[in-house]
Each structure stands twice: as C-alpha cells, then as structure tokens.
Amino acid sequence: MNRYALLTPVSKKNGGNFLIVLAFLTTLLPIFSISIYDQPSADDYVYGLLTRQTWESTGSVFQTLLTAWNQMVHSYMTWDGNFFATFLGALQPSVFGLYHWVPVIMVLSVIFGTFFFLKVLLENYLNADRNTTLFIGCALLILELQFLPSAVQGLYWFDGAVSYTFIYAMSLTLFALLLIYYQKRPVRHKYLALASACILGFLISGGNFISSLVNLILLAAMATILWYRKNTHCFGTVLVFVFSLVGLFISALAPGNGVRQADTLKTLASQPSPISAILQSFQYAGQYFLQWMSIPVTAGIFILSVLLVKLAYKSHFSFRYPFAVLILAFCVFAAGFTPPIYALGAGSLIWETRIMNILYFNFLWLWCFMLFYISGWIFHRRPKNKKAQNGINRARLKKLALRPVYYSSAAIILFVLTLPMAKTPVTSLSALQSLVDGSASQYALEANERKEIYQNQSINHADVLAYTVKPYVLYYDDIKTDKNDWRNISVARYYNKGSVAIRN
Known about the structure:
With 504 residues, this protein is mainly alpha-helical. The chain is built from 23 helices and 2 strands. It folds into 2 domains: 15-38 and 100-430, no CATH class; 438-504, no CATH class. 70% of the residues lie in helices and 2% in strands. It has a two-stranded parallel ribbon. Helix 1 packs across helix 21, helix 8 (158-182) packs parallel to helix 18 (353-379) and helix 9 (187-205) runs parallel beside helix 11.
C-alpha cells in the first residue's frame, strides 16, 4: 500500500475510462488538424522582429537566444515587465517557420500539467488508481479546452497563449513538484523537486501577474498550514514563495510598466484604486462564476462530481471548516481578477480574453475543490466509527454508482446533447466547421498571398487585401487601413517595408 495513501482505490474497471479517453482524443483531432493553417498576428511581429533577423542571418540557436534575451531587456525597460513572457514571445515559432506548432505546444503543455498534478495528488495522496486519474483528467481537459472564453488567444495566437495558457500549465507543474517534495522520497529526489519548483515559481512570476498573485496566495496558505502543524516542509514552501515573490518584484518594478500604464490611462476614464480593484474583483468573480455555468459545463462538472464525491467519502480528512474554507477558496479565485482590473480597468475582462482563459481554468479547479470538500463534509458529519452506519452508507453509495461503462456512456451522451447550449463557440466544433467549409484553408491562402507581397523586395509600400474569412479559432487581429497603426508598423518592420496597409 502507498505510504502516503489516505484512501483506498476508487475504481478498478476501465471500460468507462476507454470511452472518456476516446472522447477526449476525438476532440483533439480538429484542434490539431486546423493548426496547419495557423498564422501569426499583432504582437507576434513585435517580439519576433529581432530574433527573426538574427535567425535568418546566422542560423545560430545561441545567437537567437541571445537576441531574445536582449529583446526581453529592451521590453522590460520600455513596455512590459513580464520578463519571462517577453523572452518566450521573442522566440515565437514563425521566426523558425513553425507557427503551425503553436496549438500543439499549448495543448500538450496543458495536458502534461493537468495529468502530472492529478497523478501526484490523486494517486500519491488520495490513493486513487490510475483509471480514476485518467477519467478525471480527461473530463477536466475537455472542459478546459472546449469552452475557453477565447480559443484563438488561448491556443492559436502564440503571444497571448504563451503568456497565459503555457504559464498556467507551468503553475500546475509547480504544485505537482511541491507535492512530490512533501513525500517521503530519497533526499536527492525531494530537493530536485524543490529546486525545480523554485525556478518555476520565479519564471511564472515573470509570466503574468494573475498566475503570480494566485500562486503566492496558495503558497502562503500552504506554508501557514505546514507551520501550524510544525511540519519541516514549511521551509521549502517558504523558499518557493520567496523565489516567486522575487520574480513578482522584478516584474512589477520594471520601468516599462510605467510607460505602458501611461499609455493605457489615455483610454481609461480613471484607474481604480487598489481597494476599488479588490472590491470589483469579488463582483466580477461572482458574475463570471455564474456566467461560465453554461449547460454543457454544468454537465461536465456533474461528470466529475461522481468520482470526486467517492474520493471525498473514502477520505480520512476531517472537513471541519466548510464555510471558512469555501469562502477562502472563492477569495483566491477572486484574487485572479484583481491585477487586470487594477492595471487596465474592468473593461479588460471583455477585450483581453486571453486573461479570462486562465481565470476560467481557475473556475474549474474551484468547482473540483468545492465538490470534494462539500461532499466530504456531508459524509463526515456522521461518526464513521459506527460500523453499522458505515455499512449502510457504503451500501447506499454502491447502489448510486453505475458501472463505469454505463455511467460514461450516459455522461457523454448528456454532454453532447447540451453542446448547442454553450455560451461560447465550442473549440473542436468551430475548428471542424472551419475545416469543412474551407474557411481555414482560404484564410491561410490569403495570408500566404500577403506574405509573398511582403517578401517581394521590389515592393516598399505594400497594400494588401482584407481577409474575406475570419475563422473563429484562427483569426485574432489584423493590420488596418491606417499605415501608422501599431499593427501595421510592426508588420512593416518585420518584413523590412516602408509601410503596409489594408487596401481601401
């Protein structure tokens, strides 16, 4: 038996898991198939300018990485303090002619982070078996990838996706490593996990302020609990906290943030005060908590609930403070809204939908935690040392539980039937539609026609046609008719043109 076990295995049958895995893999087919038509846009040209020039002139990976570093330093001083995000942005795949790999990288990073975290948490701490981890992981990933507030900004547009979706996956990896550090393992394994978590904490804080703040709150809570219990792992948790805090300070104190903030204030009536931003965070957290509860998402959460309830029933946790814990959990969720509201105003929650993607991910994890804790509290209100009562409870639970294959079939049918009720386009269905109606290939064809004009050295002032199609998962932004628009200037510099513009 696992020495860290708190539960007995939940499931030993894999018929239902085959169905959920098959369903998940099926949803990935359109996401990956349409990736061959993916195109760079907007900030991709800003951060990829210097690295593209270096790569084309030298072909040296080292020189390109050095240029990315210099681009990061320049951005840090003049525009953006998120040093790790700007470094990654400078390495955007179109520099190497590999932009079609963007959604593959983003999806695989989320899959890895989700399963790595769930495996350590469920199997090493809750003694769930591999099938349980597989089922919960696939169900959660379907919800994460299919109902994104913005699929293009979360998976297909590199600069937006790498700054938020990829950083989110890194956060899951960080907490998985911390859980490994807490276990009774060989010393070298424990401290390798701790060192890796420290590095990730520092880099994540240089990725975006939302992930940084939420991670710091969780790390502080974990360190406090360990300190209260006089657990020696408190020191390691504090160390990760310190590395993360240093990364946040470096990001927040960047001179470029002031430049960007001054530019942002030109379009804001007034910047919210810190207190106002915090209060608004609770307001919008409640609003989006309800808004994201669409019928198919609710059906997906119901699919998760059965195994989470069974895990909670078998758990040895006390679940003594349901109201306090749930209030604190919602506060952590609301904290993620504070950075964008304070920096950009509440309107950023509408037009910066790449921000909303990771807040939506946090929303799903909040639901998982709520289901586990509430059901655990309900089950553990009655004394479990009474064998008769315990036997009755087990019998009832067993009667309520369908066989995995039947339950999975019913759940998948329910989920599919509710898809038309989704509040945002479903990622795979939208991608499939664009593939079938030809808009994806037409979009790529028109983008390549533009590229031929841009690469024609005899043309200094390039006027191009507007896109006739804008596939939902592929199109993010475009140049304008005004050659002085920042998007136009970025593309012109990227291709060494005097100007570019949409033809009137």
